[in-house]
Specification:
Layout (H helix, E strand, L loop, with lengths): L1 H28 L3 E7 L6 H18 L12 E7 L4 H13 L4 E4 L3 H17 L6 E4 L16 E3 L4 H13 L6 E7 L2 H17 L4 E8 L8 H10 L4 E3 L3 H13 L6 E3 L7 H5 L7 E6 L8 H13 L9 H16 L4 H8 L3 E3 L5 E5 L4 E3 L2 E7 L13 E8 L18
Parallel strand pairs: 1-2, 1-3, 3-4, 4-5, 6-7, 6-8, 8-9, 9-10
Antiparallel strand pairs: 10-14, 11-12, 12-13, 14-15
Helix pairs in contact: 2-11, 3-4, 5-6, 11-12
Length: 421
């Protein structure tokens, strides 16, 4: 009798244990896919980082979580990491990301920060096989990240500076009224790339254009650009090129306009995050940007619906970085293809992926250096022909010039060290 009770007890215990294991396994399968977002969320460039975080969180919810998640029901959770746009703080936040088990980290603002993160990721991944981290670069455009410092664990979802300047200088070269150009930028790696590459390409395409100034200023420290603008005015320049972003971009453009200098300003980042509203009518037909994804007109209803849904939820913000939903969508595609969130599996699936964006455009992530290729646009700030404005200002970007993605492809010197598994 006692033997029969023991058998029954063991049978029930085994059944309960199997049920517990099944429930636990199901719960584990449905744990969220946690993705880090590391950018400045405090300090002078906080508006840029906060804007990007908002776009990425909305993209996760709108594109995936609201539709049942990914990988048979797992939600995407975006984890903010405030690096204050400091390479030192980036190291601290990276250690935090590792301690929290984050294996995919988005970062975009500042190439200096991106390089610091690239070094940290490479070192960590060499020392911790099986616990690797993938760096998703959505906006840091120093070419070195896909050239000398290219890494298997780094993917760039933005055109690098030389690619953008190829397009921008082509556009400038078409303007026969431009004879003298002043280059000014932030004193760090990207600023130097813009300065050196602009000079070189303009010499090749328009040797008659004179570079009348090429100057750097401390990043995030200049409160009054009047002394710099005084030199621009004195130089006789009839155009300005700058790679400035954030508060430095606003202050520089404002000072140029307030000086009464009515010349075109060619930029990378002079829109959104309060910049468009601050410049307003004064920036009309003067501020121009080189960028991915057409701002106006938007070519597909799918992308228009994304923008409308975003504005309905965040009426005081804009989709400042359309590369973020693109990058997230391609990462999810890689996960679905492999049935895995492991960074190594995701990286292999991303290599040479061709993907159709919400704009209906096929983009290509080159496997040799992990550099994306897609159409590039030069747009002007205006209030004419604008369906989607910026900063609720009535002004927005209107495309004047477009180069298809296949025409932006450049050679790479990347000699990638590939990990073994």
């Amino acid at each position: 009798m006692q033997s029969k009770l023991s058998v029954r007890f063991l049978t029930r215990l085994l059944s309960a244990l199997l049920i517990f294991i099944a429930v636990f396994a199901t719960a584990q399968e449905r744990d969220p896919v946690r993705i880090g977002f590391m950018d400045p969320l405090s300090g002078p460039f906080a508006s840029i980082g906060t804007s990007g975080l908002t776009v990425l969180q909305f993209s996760a919810d709108y594109l995936f979580n609201s539709r049942g998640g990914i990988l048979d029901g797992r939600m995407i959770e975006i984890v903010p990491l405030d690096n204050m746009q400091s390479p030192t703080e980036t190291q601290i936040q990276f250690r935090r990301a590792v301690s929290e088990g984050l294996q995919i980290v988005f970062q975009g603002n500042s190439s200096a920060v991106a390089n610091a993160l690239n070094t940290a990721v490479e070192r960590h991944n060499r020392r911790n096989p099986g616990q690797e981290v993938l760096q998703i670069n959505y906006s840091a455009v120093d070419p070195i990240l896909t050239e000398e410092n290219c890494s298997f664990w780094h993917f760039r979802f933005d055109a690098h500076a030389v690619m953008k300047l190829n397009v921008l200088t082509d556009f400038i070269a078409r303007n026969e009224d431009i004879e003298q150009i002043y280059i000014i930028g932030q004193d760090y790696s990207f600023g130097h790339v813009v300065a050196e590459t602009s000079e070189r390409l303009l010499r090749e395409k328009r040797p008659d254009i004179e570079i009348v100034g090429n100057e750097f200023h401390p990043i995030g420290q200049v409160k009054d650009f009047t002394p710099y603008v005084t030199k621009i005015v004195a130089s006789g320049a009839d155009a300005v090129i700058t790679g400035n972003f954030g508060a430095d971009m606003v202050s520089l453009a404002r000072s140029i306009i307030d000086s009464g200098l009515d010349i075109p300003i060619y930029t990378f980042y002079a829109a959104y995050d309060g910049i468009t509203a601050t410049l307003g009518a004064d920036g009309k037909n003067r501020i121009r940007l080189v960028h991915n994804e057409s701002a106006n007109p938007i070519p597909t209803e799918e992308r228009k619906e994304f923008y409308r849904a975003f504005k309905a939820k965040h009426p005081d913000r804009d989709v400042t970085q359309p590369r973020l939903p693109l990058a997230l969508s391609m990462i999810v595609e890689a996960m679905e293809q492999t049935g895995s969130t492991d960074p190594y599996d995701v990286a292999l699936a991303l290599e040479d992926m061709r993907f159709t964006s919400m704009s209906g455009e096929e983009v290509w992530m080159r496997g040799a250096d992990h550099q994306i290729f897609q159409a590039l646009h030069v747009s002007v700030q205006t209030d004419e022909g604008i369906e989607f404005d910026a900063d609720n200002s009535g002004f927005g970007l209107l495309t004047e010039y477009m180069v298809p993605g296949e025409e932006t492809v450049v050679e790479t010197s990347c000699e990638m060290r590939r990990p073994r598994r």
